[in-house]
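Predict the assembly for these two chains.
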Amino acid sequence: DAKTTQPPSMDCAEGRAANLPCNHSTISGNEYVYWYRQIHSQGPQYIIHGLKNNETNEMASLIITEDRKSSTLILPHATLRDTAVYYCIVRGIYQGAQKLVFGQGTRLTINP
Amino acid sequence: DAEITQSPRHKITETGRQVTLACHQTWNHNNMFWYRQDLGHGLRLIHYSYGVQDTNKGEVSDGYSVSRSNTEDLPLTLESAASSQTSVYFCASSESPWNTEAFFGQGTRLTVV
């Protein structure tokens, strides 16, 4: 499984866009980029995923560089409830590579 | 609505006892996973299963076992509980094929005294 590198912590002002970077320079062609978040002690929550095109859903946008070696999760209008640990995960498409392996993530703090 | 449930939510047990944590999902997902999370750390994979009768070791499998006799359940057993196994345990499931999200339970907080 490709490894990911994320900054340990970030701060963002409420109402501003939060941009969370992730480096996955060893990603292979059959691996997707997934983002999850964990609010306090709850179970992780799926946010978004993508292969090579930019993706957007009701929660966030995912921007993947053309070489696929890095990506950015964008929360367009961060609220206090977005304070959480955000995990960037690379996940293979084959049966034997579907497990999710979590790194340390980025602790995002949204400030009023 | 389909869901994934863990039980119990909290448990205290003594060192050396056998403990089983339950995980039940109603999505009919093939893939199920067990993670542990220690204070200040990310989630670490213990065991996982891609279907009935299939089990695989994760990165921290020592002292744990799982069995998959049906699609809905993946119980996690601590053969002889140790204080180092005090942790929060999360179960998750996902559907095959690959392009789907994983759903997590609310966690079981286990304390070994």
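Chain A has a mean pLDDT of 91. Chain A touches chain B through 26 residues (CB under 8 Å).
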